[in-house]
Specification:
Order of helices and strands: EHEHEEHEEEEEEEEEEEEEEEEEEE
Low-confidence stretches: none
Bound molecules: coenzyme A
Oligomer: single chain
Radius of gyration: 17 Å
Number of strands: 23
Strand content: 25-35%
Distance between the termini: 36 Å
Length: 219
């Protein structure tokens, strides 16, 4: 049994800790928990975690330890991909955290370093690559392909055969219609309904979702 090291001690990190406790309640997977964060004061506003989950150091200076397995708790796709690449190159080992309430249908492929939060449903033949985060109650339709490092917020609906590029950020309650392709590092605004393919590094929002000139693609 190993220590679970949560990369990122912000609110997503707190959530990941909570979901990891749920996993351990079903069958113990990790003997203890720790946070890594480049901000040494990251837990100051949430003292409750300080007593239970030590912040053991920065991501930049972390030295991989065979007793550790890491889970990613960073939402911003570019930052997440950079940190995942850096830590992997330095020899860190990642796991995927799948909450016990998640439904994974037949023939789902799931890469390492993913986090699937409570009540996520992934339908048949979907392929989720590495370091994908899927937040509460989102639905990934049949034959969907989600590429490395994408972040899917809560209550999202990706319908059948959707193709999500590398590092896409999908805002809460967005719906993406069947067969749509979303380019790498695109941002889909909260509540948007995506009816047309989305180009790389563009932000779309609204119903129907449209690109608005001048918007950055920061989530
Ligand atoms: C799309 C998004 C990235 C744009 O962010 P932004 O560039 O900072 O945009 P602003 O907040 O400055 O808003 C600019 C304009 O876009 C509109 N807008 C922003 N987000 C929108 C959305 N999701 N749908 C429709 N219109 C939206 C605003 O009303 C505003 O319009 P106005 O200029 O006519 O007043 C952001 O609003 C969003 O939806 N992020 C997702 C948040 C989320 O779901 N997080 C996960 C949970 S933590």
């Amino acid at each position: 049994m190993k220590r679970l090291v949560i990369v990122g001690a912000s609110s997503l990190g707190h959530e990941v800790y909570s979901w990891a406790l749920d996993v351990n309640r079903i069958e113990q997977q990790w003997h203890s928990f720790a946070f890594l964060d480049d901000d040494a004061n990251a837990l100051d506003s949430h003292q409750i975690y300080k007593s239970k989950v030590p912040l053991v150091g920065s991501i930049q200076r972390y030295i991989p330890n065979p007793d550790d397995v890491l889970v990613m708790a960073i939402s911003d796709p570019r930052l997440k991909i950079d940190i995942a690449n850096d830590l992997t190159r330095r020899g860190a080992a990642f796991t995927s955290l799948v909450h016990p309430s998640v439904i994974l249908a037949e023939n789902v492929q799931l890469g390492t370093g993913c986090v699937l939060c409570p009540h996520v449903v992934v339908s048949c033949d979907a392929r989720i690559e590495e370091f994908v985060s899927i937040n509460l109650a989102s639905t990934i339709g049949h034959d969907v392909h989600v590429r490395t490092g994408s972040t899917i917020s809560s209550h999202v609906d990706l319908m059948g055969f959707v193709n999500l590029g590398v590092g896409v950020f999908v805002g809460s309650h967005a719906a993406v219609l069947p067969n749509i392709t979303v380019g790498d590092f695109a941002v889909l605004g909260a509540g948007s309904v995506v009816l047309r393919n989305v180009r790389t590094s563009t932000t779309v929002m609204g119903v129907p979702a449209k690109q608005i000139a001048g918007f950055s693609n920061k989530p």
